[in-house]
Automatic annotation (TrEMBL):
Single-chain monomer with multiple functions. The lineage of its organism: Bacteria, Pseudomonadati, Pseudomonadota, Alphaproteobacteria, Acetobacterales. Residues 6-261 form the 5'-3' exonuclease domain. The gene is polA. It holds the Pfam family 5_3_exonuc. Residues 323-513 form the 3'-5' exonuclease domain. GO terms for biological process: DNA-templated DNA replication; double-strand break repair. PROSITE patterns: DNA_POLYMERASE_A. This is DNA polymerase I.
Length: 924
C-alpha cells in the first residue's frame, strides 16, 4: 500500500504524444509507419527511467473524446480537428512503447487523462506519499500543492507553487478561478469575454474566488468588465466546472500495482528494432540494430525538384567520413551520376577569402547522402614536403557540372547559398537551380533563438562538432591560406561541410511545416537569395571625388572641434581615447554620473556623454560631435573609396540575410543601414551615391509602415481612421491625446505626439521620452498615460505581446515569422525590461521587414516584363533604390509604388513615397 516512502511518477501520455508529433520532423519505421511522436515519447521514457526514478510509475492516456464534460457542454473541444493522418497509427504505438518498457498504461472511458492524474495525485498524497506529474499542460498546475509537483519534460523544469504563481498570478488552488474567467479557446471553454489572464488574476487576487467575484459584480464601478461579468455569470460558472479536474475518480489500477519494474531487455530491444530506433538502442546499451530512415515526405526538395527518387536517413546514425578526394574526371562523373540518382546534392565551395565577389574558388565539395561526400580541389599549392599531385582544372569541372547544376530534377542544397552562388557566378557558372539554403531554413523558424552558422546548427541539431577552419589553417601568425592546406586535411574539412549541410537539411526542412514557417521560407527567404545576389553583383556607383572632398571637410571640422576641446580642457590629449577622456571628465572636471567599467576605466560611451550633455555640459556635446564626424569619415567618406571597384566605380555591399531577430536585412562592406537619416551629414553621404551616365536613381520608401502595422495589429480605430482619411497621423494623435484642434496646431505639440507615436513602437519609457523631448520624467509620464488612456488598445497589445513572449519565448509577425526574444524570462529587471521592449517592437519591425521582402520578390519577378532598363540596387530598412534610364524614371516610379503598395493587405493601405534624382540624396 502507498506510504510516506511512495513517490508516484505519472506521465501525461496523451499530452506528450501531441507535443512530440508537432515538435519532431516526420520519421518512419523500416516498414513505413509514421513514428516521429513514438520516437520522442520513447526518448522521454528512457530519460525518465534514468533521471527521475520514483518508487511507482504509470503513463496516463485519454480513452477518447467523449467524457462527462462533453455531456455537460457539447461544445467542449468540439472545434478541434481530427488528428493528422500520420498521427493516428501512433496512438496504439505509444501504448505499445509503455508495454515494451514494462510500464503500466492507464486510461478510463468517460474521463480525461487529467482527471486520472488528479485522482492518483490526491490518493498518493492522502496516503502520505508524493507525486510528480510529467507534463507541459498548464491546466494541471491547479494540482500543485505540498507533495505534488509538475515536471516539464522538454526543459526538465520542476514546477511548484512559486512557478504556478508566477505563471497565473495566483496560488495553485485559485488557478481554476482564473481559467474560468479567461476561458480557453483551445478547449472551447467560454469564460467571460474581455477578461484576459492579467485581468482575471487581478480579480481573483482582490475577491478571492469566482463566486465572490460574481457576487461583487453588481457593486463594481460601471465598466465593460463589470457588465460582462453580470451578463456571462452562467458561462463563467460553467467554465469553472469544465476546467476543474475531478480528483475522486475511481482508480482503474491501485497504486501498489504501479511499482517500478526493470524492462525486459530482450523484449525492449526487439520492439526498438521493429521501430528502427537504432540511436536509442545504442544509448541504452542494448546492442546493434537496424537503422531508422526519414521518408521523403520529410524531404521536401524531392517534391520541389519534381523527383520522387530522393532518399534520406536519420542524420545522426551514419559516420562522418572518411571522404573521397576527386582528382580525375571519371570519379567526378561517378559523383554526378549519384546526384542524379539521389535527386539531391549538398554543395559547398572553398575560396581564397570571405568577399564572395573577389574570392577565387580553391575547390568544391559535394554530398549525396549522410556520410557520403567528396572534395574536388582546383588550386591547392602544396609544399616541397607534401606536393598536392594531380588536380582537376576548374573550368573543365564547372563545364561538366553545369548541366547538373541547372537540372530542375536535382535539388542543390547550400549553407548560406548567396555566398556560394556569387562564387560560382564569378567562376563562370551562372545558373544554379533549384536551391535550398539550410541557413535560411533554420532562420525562417528560429530568428533570434540561436545563431545560424553551420557549426552551431550542427551542434544543436546533429550533436556533432565539425572540424573547425582554425584546425586546418592554424591561427594568428601561423595561419596559412586554405590553398596551402594539404589535400587530406582539406578533404576532411570541406567534404564534412557538405555532409553536415545535407544532414541539417534533412532535419530542418521538414520542421518548416511543423513550425508553420514553410510559406515564409518558400515565398520570401528562398526567392530573395537570387534577388540579393543580383543586387550585390550590380552594386551602386559612387562619386570618388565627392567622397574625398567630404573626407577633407570632415577632417577640417574635426580639427576645429578638437582645438576647441583642447582649449576648454586647458591641454592637449587624444580625443579618441576613452581612457583619457574619462579621466578628464570625471577625475579632473568632477562631472557627476560617472561609472567605471570592469577594467576600472571610466565609461564614456554615447549614452554617458548624451546624459552629461543634457545636463548642460558643453564638453561632452563637443565630443559627441567629434565622434560622429570621425565615424562618418572612417566608415563612409574614406572606406567607400577603398571599397569601390576600380573597373566599375561601384561599391558592392553584402546583404546579411540571417543576422537580425526580426527578419530585417543588414549589410556590411559597406554598412549602408547606419547612414544618418535626418542629419545634414547623412544627406551629404547619400549625395556621393550617384546614377550611371544617362540614368537616374529612383527611391521608393514605405511611409510610416510600423505605425500602420501597429494600427493593424492592435486594431486602434482612431489610428485606422486617420490613415484611411489620409490625415497627418502625428497631428491626429496630438489632437486625440492633448485635446487640441488639428487646425492651427503648433509644431512643438505635433513633435511631441510624433515622439510618442514612434517611441511607443519601441516601448519607450517615461525617462527615455523625457530625454528625447527635454522635459521632466513626470511630464513625460503624463503624456504616456494620456496616450494610453486615449488608445487603450495599444496598451492591451503591448501587454498581450509581452505575455506571448514570456509564454513561448518568441513573438510572431502578422506574416507568421517567429521572432525569439532572449532575456524575456530574465530575473534581472533591467535586462527583462529591455527584452520586453524588444518583444513589443519585433512584430512591427519584423512585419515591416516581411512586407519589403515580399515587395522585393514581387518586383524582381515583374520588373523584366515592364521592358524598362532598370535595376534594383539597394534595400535599406523601408526603402528600395533603383537605377533606371532617365526617360523611364517616371514610369518606373509609378510601377514600383504600385507593386510595393500591393505587397500586403492590411486594415490600412500601405503608402509608398517615391523620388527621382541624379544622386541618392536627391531621390531620397
Amino acid at each position: 500500500m502507498p506510504s510516506e516512502k511512495t513517490h508516484l511518477v505519472l506521465v501525461d501520455g496523451s499530452g506528450f504524444l501531441f507535443r512530440a508529433f508537432h515538435a519532431l520532423p516526420p520519421m518512419s519505421s523500416p516498414d513505413g509507419v509514421p513514428v516521429n511522436a513514438v520516437f520522442g515519447f520513447t526518448n522521454m521514457l528512457m530519460r525518465l527511467l534514468r533521471d527521475h526514478v520514483g518508487t511507482h510509475l504509470a503513463v496516463i492516456f485519454d480513452a477518447g473524446r467523449k467524457t462527462f464534460r462533453t455531456d455537460m457542454y457539447p461544445q467542449y473541444k468540439a472545434h478541434r480537428p481530427e488528428p493528422p493522418e500520420d498521427m493516428r497509427p501512433q496512438f496504439a504505438l505509444v501504448r505499445r512503447a509503455t508495454e515494451a518498457f514494462n510500464i503500466p498504461a492507464i486510461e478510463l472511458p468517460g474521463w480525461e487523462a487529467d482527471d486520472l492524474l488528479a485522482s492518483y495525485a490526491k490518493a498518493v498524497v492522502a496516503a502520505g506519499g508524493r507525486c510528480t506529474i510529467v507534463s507541459s499542460d498548464k491546466d494541471l498546475m491547479q494540482l500543485v500543492r505540498p507533495g505534488v509537483e509538475l515536471l516539464e519534460p522538454m526543459k526538465q523544469k520542476v514546477i511548484r507553487e512559486a512557478e504556478v504563481e508566477a505563471k497565473f498570478g495566483v496560488t495553485p488552488d485559485r488557478v481554476v478561478d482564473v481559467q474560468a474567467l479567461m476561458g480557453d479557446s483551445t478547449d472551447n471553454v467560454p469564460g467571460v469575454p474581455g477578461i484576459g489572464p492579467k485581468g482575471a488574476a487581478q480579480l481573483v487576487q482582490e475577491y478571492g474566488s469566482l463566486e465572490a467575484i460574481l457576487a461583487a459584480a453588481e457593486g463594481m464601478k460601471p465598466s465593460k468588465r463589470r457588465q460582462s461579468l453580470i451578463d456571462h455569470a452562467d458561462a463563467a460558472r460553467m467554465s469553472l466546472r469544465l476546467v476543474t479536474l475531478d480528483e475522486d475518480v475511481e482508480l482503474p489500477r491501485p497504486i501498489d500495482e504501479l511499482n517500478c519494474c526493470e524492462p525486459v531487455n530482450e523484449d525492449l530491444r526487439d520492439w526498438l528494432e521493429t521501430m528502427g530506433f537504432h540511436s536509442i538502442i545504442q544509448r541504452m546499451g542494448l546492442g546493434p540494430a537496424a537503422r531508422p530512415r526519414m521518408p521523403m515526405r520529410a524531404v521536401q526538395a524531392a517534391q520541389d525538384a519534381g523527383s520522387d527518387s530522393a532518399q534520406a536517413h536519420t542524420p545522426s546514425d551514419v559516420a562522418y567520413g572518411p571522404y573521397e578526394t576527386v582528382t580525375d574526371m571519371d570519379a567526378l562523373d561517378r559523383w554526378i551520376s549519384q546526384a542524379y540518382e539521389a535527386g539531391i546534392m549538398a554543395v559547398d565551395t572553398e575560396t581564397t577569402g570571405l568577399n564572395a565577389r573577389l574570392a577565387d574558388m580553391v575547390g568544391l565539395s559535394l554530398s549525396t547522402a549522410p556520410g557520403k561526400a567528396c572534395y574536388v580541389p582546383f588550386l591547392h599549392e602544396g609544399t616541397l614536403d607534401q606536393p598536392t599531385g594531380h588536380q582537376l582544372d576548374r573550368t573543365e569541372v564547372l563545364e561538366r557540372l553545369a548541366p547538373l547544376m541547372r537540372d530542375q530534377s536535382v535539388l542543390k542544397i547550400f549553407q548560406n547559398a548567396k555566398y556560394d552562388l556569387l562564387v560560382f557566378h564569378k567562376a563562370g557558372l551562372s545558373e544554379v537551380a533549384p536551391i535550398d539554403d539550410t541557413m535560411l531554413i533554420s532562420y525562417a523558424q528560429s530568428a533570434g533563438e540561436h545563431g545560424q552558422g553551420m557549426d552551431e546548427l550542427s551542434a544543436l541539431h546533429l550533436g556533432h562538432t565539425p572540424i573547425s577552419y582554425d584546425a586546418v589553417t592554424g591561427t594568428g601568425r601561423n595561419r596559412i591560406p586554405f590553398a596551402q592546406v594539404t589535400l587530406e586535411s582539406a578533404t576532411a574539412y570541406a567534404a564534412e561541410d557538405a555532409d553536415v549541410t545535407l544532414r541539417l537539411w534533412q532535419v530542418l526542412k521538414p520542421a518548416l511545416r511543423t513550425r508553420q514557417a514553410l510559406a515564409l521560407y518558400e515565398e520570401m527567404e528562398r526567392p530573395l537569395v537570387d534577388v540579393l545576389t543580383g543586387m550585390e553583383e550590380v552594386g551602386i556607383k559612387v562619386d570618388a571625388t565627392e567622397l574625398r572632398r567630404m573626407s577633407k571637410d570632415f577632417e577640417t571640422r574635426m580639427a576645429e572641434i578638437e582645438k576647441d576641446i583642447h582649449e576648454q580642457v586647458g591641454r592637449s590629449f587624444n580625443v579618441g581615447s576613452p581612457k583619457q577622456l574619462g579621466e578628464i571628465l570625471f577625475d579632473e572636471m568632477g562631472l557627476p554620473g560617472g561609472k567605471r567599467t570592469k577594467t576600472g576605466a571610466w565609461g564614456t560611451d554615447s549614452s554617458v556623454l548624451e546624459s552629461l550633455a543634457e545636463q548642460g555640459h558643453d564638453l561632452p556635446q563637443k565630443i559627441l560631435s567629434w565622434r560622429q564626424l570621425a565615424k562618418l569619415k572612417s566608415t563612409y567618406a574614406d572606406a567607400l573609396v577603398q571599397q569601390m571597384d576600380p573597373a566599375t566605380q561601384r561599391v558592392h555591399t553584402s546583404f546579411q540575410m540571417a543576422i537580425t531577430t526580426t527578419g530585417r536585412l543588414s549589410s556590411n562592406e559597406p554598412n549602408l543601414q547606419n547612414i544618418p537619416i535626418r542629419t545634414e551629414e547623412g544627406a551629404r553621404i547619400r549625395k556621393a551615391f550617384v546614377a550611371a551616365e544617362g540614368h537616374v536613381l529612383v527611391s521608393a520608401d514605405y511611409s510610416q509602415i510600423e505605425l500602420r502595422l501597429l494600427a493593424h495589429v492592435a486594431k486602434i480605430e482612431p489610428l485606422l481612421e486617420a490613415f484611411r482619411l489620409g490625415q497627418d497621423i502625428h497631428a491626429r494623435t496630438a489632437s486625440e491625446v492633448f485635446g487640441v484642434l488639428i487646425e492651427g496646431m503648433d509644431a512643438l505639440t505635433r513633435r511631441r505626439a510624433k515622439a510618442i507615436n514612434f517611441g511607443i513602437i519601441y516601448g519607450i519609457s517615461a525617462f527615455g521620452l523625457s530625454r528625447q523631448l527635454q522635459i521632466s520624467p513626470g511630464e513625460a509620464r503624463s503624456y504616456i498615460d494620456a496616450y494610453f488612456a486615449r488608445y487603450p488598445g495599444i496598451r492591451d497589445y503591448m501587454e498581450r505581446t509581452k505575455e506571448e513572449a514570456k509564454e513561448h519565448g518568441y513573438v510572431t509577425t502578422p506574416f507568421g515569422r517567429r521572432c525569439y526574444v532572449p532575456g524575456i524570462r530574465e530575473k534581472n529587471g533591467a535586462r527583462r525590461a529591455y527584452a520586453e521592449r524588444q518583444a513589443i517592437n519585433a512584430p512591427l519591425q519584423g512585419g515591416a521587414a516581411d512586407i519589403i521582402k515580399r515587395a522585393m520578390v514581387r518586383l524582381a519577378r515583374a520588373l523584366p516584363e515592364q521592358k524598362l532598363n532598370a535595376r534594383m540596387l539597394l534595400q535599406v530598412h523601408d526603402e528600395l533604390l533603383f537605377e533606371v534610364e532617365e526617360k523611364d524614371a517616371a514610369a518606373l516610379a509609378a510601377f514600383v509604388r504600385k507593386e510595393m503598395e500591393g505587397a500586403a493587405s492590411l486594415d490600412v493601405a500601405l503608402e509608398v513615397e517615391t523620388g527621382i534624382g541624379a544622386s541618392w540624396a536627391e531621390a531620397h
